[in-house]
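Q: A reviewer asked whether we had any structural model of the full assembly, not just the individual parts. We don't, so I'm hoping you can provide one. Inputs are below.
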Amino acid sequence: MKLKLLLLSFLLALPAHSARGDTPGQNFLIQCSACHAVDHKLVGPSLVEISGIYGKDPDGFLRWCMKPGKKRPDTIEMPSMAHVGEPALKEIYGYILSAAAGKTEQAVADNSAALENNRRPRVQRIFMPDASPAAIAVALPGDLSFCFDAGDCRLRYVWKGGFIDALDHYKGNGNALAKLKGDVLYREGEFPLSGGSTVSSTPKFLGYSMSEGIPIFRYLRDGVEYSEKITPLPDGSGIQREFTTKGSTALILKPAGKGAVAAASTGEGPIQTNSFTLTYRWK
Amino acid sequence: MKKLLLFLALSTALHAAPEPVRFDFQSIQVPPNIDPQVGGVAVLPDGKVVTVFHRGEVMIYDPAAKTWSRFAEGLHEPLGILVESPSSFLIMQRPELTRVKDTNGDGVADEYETVFDDFGISGNYHEFAFGPVKDKDGSLYIALNLASQFAGVRPEIRGTFTDIGELDRKGMTQDKEWSKRSEKAGRMYSRVNWRGWVLKLSPDGKQMEPFASGFRSPDGIGFDADGNLLVTDNEGDWRGTSPLYIAKAGGFYGNPASLVWRKGWDKGDPLKVPLEELQKMRTMETGRFPQGFLANSPTEPAIFPKSWGPYAGQVVLGEMNQNRMVRYLPDDVAGFRQSTLIPMFDDTELGSGNHRVAFGPDGAMWVGKTHLSWAGAEGLVKVTPKDAEKIFTVVSCHVVKAAKGQEMHIRVSQPIGAQLPKIAVERYDYLYHRDYGSDQVGKAEVPVGNAIVSADGLEITLPMEMKEGFIHQVDLTPLVSKTGSPLEGKLLYYQATKLP
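A: Here is a predicted structure for the entire assembly that you could use as a starting point for your response.
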């Protein structure tokens, strides 16, 4: 067994400088080994698994190699191996069966879940549900998190509980959205302030600065430059949003979305100052 | 077991002429609790290595102390970095180009300034964003991937959606039935603005010029020593094999999906434009990487510094799938810059996944690795040459017109041995078409006439009749130097887009 292992590692160390391998084993190394290992899943299935599928179906193996596609939801599509040519693919087929003979599938240790970052506060740009792809997830101190949309430049929703489960997103190259580890308490259907300027334009995101782990977003909406810092209320009953503005005259606070009541630090009526706080308390 | 022993015997025979150890490879211990897939590498003037990771961390490695420190985090699939100063970096992430900056000197970024985000993101996973690189005038260039047919677009997008295409907005939106109609989207698609383009930005990022179109997955953007903007792309639709282009203003580089964003575009669905028309519009490849043989997914170009001896001033490119990198040697023919691509670091411990490349002030090459669920590897590797001046390798390859056909002039870094071995040349082409990839076509041996070695032993002249458009693969495996050293980089892939 030890000798076999030694031989195998020797084979794997074979040079890849030849444009074409002289043996099926070399061809396998050049053409296939980047994605297929003998007894465990690498990018694609192991030789053990391939042998199980095509062990009695060499024609099926050839067809797949010449014109593959995407079969598995969690695996990328295999590129065509037509450039290798049928004769060499037939030899590789033989090599796969012999290399897999007597082997069993080994489970692959996956520690990627252990890399989940649970530190708070924290900012993570990622694809989020119910937002544009330019979304930003923010974990606040405590148990509130929110999604800010850098596309539309506004708060989208607040949730309570854990932060996000982003593993599928990271493992699938962004093909999955992050999942919320909690329940949404509040959604906002539109930007909470109106007025201020007669200029109407597409919102423009300017970035954010960090203040003790909390982002202060900056954006332009309808000729007004805003900065906004969202933090939890100390008693856990909601959030506060500290705004500063440039270029505004009088802003009107719109009613909060379902599930919260909004109030401005300036009281009732138009907001005439360029520094104010909006408080949202959960109903 | 007998079969294995036979392999062993054959392999031993192949190892008859041992390769000298020309390079030192040092695998760097990655920081704990980090997914060590590298999207960007840059080296600071003091030699510290800024490394950008898959899940959005920006970490700085101190090679002297062998420690990592966290500079920033929270970015979305960052895939490129440009150093402005030791405390300010431009980083390309999925949604935008961002200036990540430490303004209070505590070594941690506190400012994430949006420099440029005026491009579309549909939410399709394949819409990666690359760059930035800076030209000598300070302008910045970024490159944007097409979306992939293996997913639709999200209900909400950022940017502008074009209605040009077989499916309407609703039809393009991902749902459970997507796979039943995905063929109609095109293998790759550009339904939001500037997908498949290289964009040029003013130094402050405030002005954008749509620079060049026709790209598919341009995961390698950088300059050669003459200031040409090199862009690599990946085998796929309209890429018979992975190409290397020199991108110029207004150029179209083959994959039609992006044409829908061209100013004044009036030809409807670009995927339905006849091939002959696209053929006339496109700029040809400067180099091609034979799929499965030289490279499957070429990546970032970088220029070798002086300490790399015979390689100094040349361009090296990363490669994801094969255990190697690739070198580029330009040749200007009939006003067109084409090239020879040469495997590098074959038979070494470099490994695969070579995604990002940067050189330090001491000349060390830093290679960041990734796979992103494709073939590849992880981590950061430091590569230094040993006795660089003594390395025997090809340093240039030029084709000139001869009385009959052409002559290929191959210069090497050390005098070659007395006896010139037989040098085999074969040629082949890859088709330009809508299908994914291409077989090698028109493959033939190329008869080589009387090969001549220059008096100083540094140049070989190979007379042959070359075929325009074809890759000419020159096998220099048997070549040894006067001192008996085998050649570093044994195969030349000369892209004869033009013939003299």
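A: Points you may want to mention in the reply: Chain B touches chain A through 78 residues (CB under 8 Å). Confidence is low (pLDDT under 50) at residues 1-16 of chain B.
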